[in-house]
Design brief:
The complex is a heterodimer of chains A (114) and B (115).
Chain A lengths: L4 E3 L2 E5 L4 E6 L6 E7 L6 E6 L5 E4 L2 E5 L5 E6 L8 E10 L5 E5 L3 E6 L1
Parallel strand pairs in A: 2-11
Antiparallel strand pairs in A: 1-3, 3-8, 4-5, 4-9, 6-7, 7-8, 9-10, 9-11
Chain B lengths: L3 E3 L3 E4 L5 E7 L5 E8 L3 E8 L6 E2 L7 E6 L2 E6 L8 E10 L5 E5 L3 E5 L1
Parallel strand pairs in B: 2-11
Antiparallel strand pairs in B: 1-3, 3-8, 4-5, 4-9, 5-6, 7-8, 9-10, 9-11
Classes of the chains: A mainly beta (114), B mainly beta (115).
């Protein structure tokens, strides 16, 4: 099955630093999504991007939908300890049955040192 | 708030046992999904369902089956559990929202260990 290329795989940063991560694909997606998974929990949606070139912010988070529709990035500014977790990118594509499904990246594990 | 619940947080089974993982959502969502999550591999789609009694194979359906008899409930079945099915299993549900995308809401996961 298809997966997205997400990088980096992990990051160790100091509190207050900025973080950048990105996802690339050989396929075009209609929608790009970024999820965060806290330890012991299921992923939760952070940001959804609908249009190529779109730049969206949500508090300290900024994400962009690449102009080619094959990539996206997520930035976290001024990191805090509760940013710890695994961040997943996901692309949405239509299935043969007409429904939609998500293809996920492998995740980026973030550790923030206070 | 949307709530997706899974029947167990932790489960230990023996090789060859039949295993049922249950998932229930309370928001009348049409679509439901089962993923497994393994370190370094991310989330991989096992099966999904877009309506009652309907199912589609995901990327890794081998060794699994599913059942959706009611809209709110989606079950994952391991007919004969094997050690390579030790994993975290995540259930999700979604509906089509404005903007044309499906936000998937995830349950807390079931960590299954097969001995």
């Amino acid at each position: 099955g298809q997966q997205l290329n997400q990088s980096p795989q992990s990051m160790f940063i100091q509190e207050g630093e900025d973080v950048s991560m990105n996802c690339t694909s050989s396929s075009i997606f209609n929608t790009w999504l970024w999820y965060k998974q806290d330890p012991g929990e299921g992923p939760v949606l952070l940001i959804a991007l609908y249009k190529a070139g779109e730049l969206t912010s949500n508090g300290r988070l900024t994400a962009q939908f690449g102009i080619t529709r094959k990539d996206s990035f997520l930035n976290i500014s001024a990191s805090i300890p509760s940013d710890v977790g695994i961040y997943f990118c996901a692309g949405q594509q239509a299935t043969q049955g007409g429904s939609e499904k998500l293809v996920f990246g492998k995740g980026m594990k973030l550790t923030v040192n206070p | 708030d949307v709530k997706v619940t899974q029947s167990s947080r932790y489960l230990v089974k023996r090789t060859g046992e039949k295993v049922f993982l249950e998932c229930v959502q309370d928001m009348d969502h049409e679509n439901m999904f089962w993923y497994r999550q393994d370190p370094g591999l991310g989330l991989r789609l096992i099966y999904f369902s877009y309506d009652v009694k309907m199912k589609e194979k995901g990327d890794i359906p081998e060794g699994y089956s599913v059942s959706r008899e009611k809209k709110e409930r989606f079950s994952l079945i391991l007919e004969s559990a094997s050690t390579n099915q030790t994993s975290m299993y995540l259930c999700a549900s979604s509906c089509l929202l404005a903007g044309g995308y499906n936000e998937q809401f995830f349950g807390p996961g079931t960590r299954l260990t097969v001995l």
